[in-house]
Amino acid sequence: MQLNATVFAVLGLVLTCPAQDAAKPRTERISVPSAAVAAAVTVAVHLPAGYDTERERRYPVIFFLHGAGRGSERTWAQRGTNETVAKLVDQKKMPPCIIVCPRDAGRMTFYINWKGQQTQRHADFITAELPAYIDEKYRTLKGRSFRALMGDSMGGFGALVNALRHPQAFGTVSAHEPAIYPEDIESLPSWIRRGGRGRGSILARLFGDPLDETYWLEHNVFHIAKTAKKGAFKDLPIYFDVGENDRYGLDQTCPPWSKLLKEKGVKHTFHLRPGGHGSRFFAAAVPSSLEFHGRHFEAALRRAASLKDK
């Protein structure tokens, strides 16, 4: 009898474990083909708890753009952000989401289309190819209201610029310590101006050789805000923050952009927070941006439910 009880206990353990595992969040690393960058891009997709068991359920999507240096598709998980998301979901501060983290498909691409280079169209990948691929492969809620774009540092620049230039692609945008600078090229920090405007420099790679100043301005958030038509961003909630001791001087550029947005009547949320630049600042600040996206996702879900009931 004791042997039989042991056997049944083991069998019960074997039978229940797969179901329990299926209910847990998990991560897939996939390769997404791209005509825009003429390569396959490595992407980490973080699926929420219950994705494999609640087969009829669909989810909002957050696309996250990492920073330069050691940043990669692994940055989100390495910083413990999945655990932060799980806590916020448990606290009902955001709905379960699919998190999509593409690897920067080059060397400091800033996630924009490089001037005159047909195989370096990074914005086209982020705003069109990648969302379409994710919609096809996973159970997403369709439409811009259920898509958010996030970024950190270089990725913060990419998130803001792409959301402002392609407001039809994403319903909300957030950026932590975004690498944004005023319109005057000569005022840029030395690490960007290194190599001048000539061949091989960051500026030449992104904005042409010789540098196309019009193209530069078209991708400058100050210029975009100044020249946008009234109401251009009324349906694009914006969140961004920066540390008050940012080593790249972004604490000197983000507040003036917030001031400009206020002058132009663009609704947004901005915080100048204690801290510097990097993973510690991101980890401390990211709950605020996640709650920001969560509120807008919840509002979109309520709107969708009310339309369904009519």
What report would you give on this structure?
This protein has eleven helices and eight strands. The chain has 310 residues and is α/β, with parallel strands linked by helices. An eight-stranded mixed β-sheet has the order 1-2-4-3-5-6-7-8, with helices on both faces. Helix 3 (81-90) packs across helix 11 (279-309). Mean pLDDT is 91; it is low at 6-17. Helix 5 links the parallel strand 5 and strand 6 (172-176). The chain is 41% helix and 16% strand. The protein has one domain: 3-Layer(aba) Sandwich (Rossmann fold), CATH 3.40.50.
Q: What does the radius of gyration come to?
A: 21 Å
Q: Would you identify the CATH architecture? A: 3-Layer(aba) Sandwich
Secondary-structure-derived class: alpha/beta
Distance between the termini: 60 Å
- The CATH homology group name: Alpha/Beta hydrolase fold, catalytic domain
> What is the string of helix and strand elements?
HEEEHHEHEHEHHHHEHEH
Order of strands, main sheet, comes to 1-2-4-3-5-6-7-8
**Tally of extended strands?**
8
The CATH topology label is Rossmann fold
Q: How does the major sheet shape up?
A: 8 strands, mixed
| Spans where pLDDT lies below 50 across 5 or more residues | 6-17
Amount of beta strand: 15-25%
Question: Average pLDDT value?
Answer: 91
Helix content: 40-55%
Highest-level CATH class: Alpha Beta
Helix tally equals 11
Q: Tell me the count of domains.
A: 1
Shape: globular
